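[09:14] KT: can someone run the structure on this one? pasting the chain below
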Amino acid sequence: MFESVIRSPYKGLFVIAFLIVASIPFQKRVEGMRGKFRVVEEGLYFSSASLKRFSLGYEELLADIYWLRAIQYFGGRSVEERDPELLYHYFDIITDLDPKFVNAYRYGGTFLAEPPPLGLGDIERGIKLFDKGRKNNPENFRLPLEEAFIYYLYVKDYKRAAELFKEASEKPGLSEFRRASLRGMAASSLSKGGSRELARRIWEEIYRTTTIEGRKEFALRNLKELDAMDMEDLLTWALRRYIEIYGHAPSALSELKSKGLVKEIPKEPFGRGFVIVSGLNKVRSETLLEQELKYNTAYLSGVSRRFKRSFGRYPRDLEELKDFTRENGWDFPEHPLGKEYSYNPETGTVGE
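[09:31] RB: done, structure tokens below
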């Protein structure tokens, strides 16, 4: 990137100084804004074409400046304060200036697509950035691989994930072991869909290869969740076998051990315990149960707010909320304890 600058140091220093000074007004404008950003309407930035014209051929240097601005700006704000439109705009400019800046596609696309608290949950813009990266870097295997993770883990489009795993496996420079592993991911995605086994392999790959500490912790948490699900399945099997033999549910999980149906009642990977959900004849991890309830109520409250934007009021009751959800082709998640959610029609809030 810096060869031409080294050959002509005075010219290089002048261009670097010019680009940094030119970027200051934009940064001040960004720092002076709060809440929702109206990027396009307010003309916050020059177009990529304009930036290229005054970069004097040093597009990669200007891309580096925007990269540092993006890290500085978004790194210092909570998820709620980060605007996915503005972030996408940053990375779109960076990758227009330097189409071979692979890490800009990878980190930008992943951060946009991954759900909070690690990312912004804007899957559409994240995928758009990955698609742009794949087009501009056709020999890079990490871009289709990491886009496949997005499709598999969050979109649940296993066919498209398999296509991207296969695309990654065909890139040059891979070891035979890595190539075979990616082909295996493609085959598993097609044949097993959302299998826990493949999800585990994906999170292990992310944990092993990422250099971002927060993402490593996120991957580890997901691996622990998969372990907790395996434990739930084992204990649920033992619970139902107990009911089949004795005609009633046990009063405590310890009875599964005393009757020889399991060797031990394990602690879940997060350090908490398991509980019997009597209405569903299931055993659930306390952590996963709490997490699912929190997600479901937040999601349904969001649907209720969307109803109000459409009709000027909140749904009258849960039934109207259910109808609206299903009419739009969205899932209405069942209560993980087999109960009905609470609902406040005055605030549109769904509770446990």
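[09:33] KT: thanks! Residues 1-45 have pLDDT under 50 and may be disordered.
[09:34] RB: yep, looked fine to me
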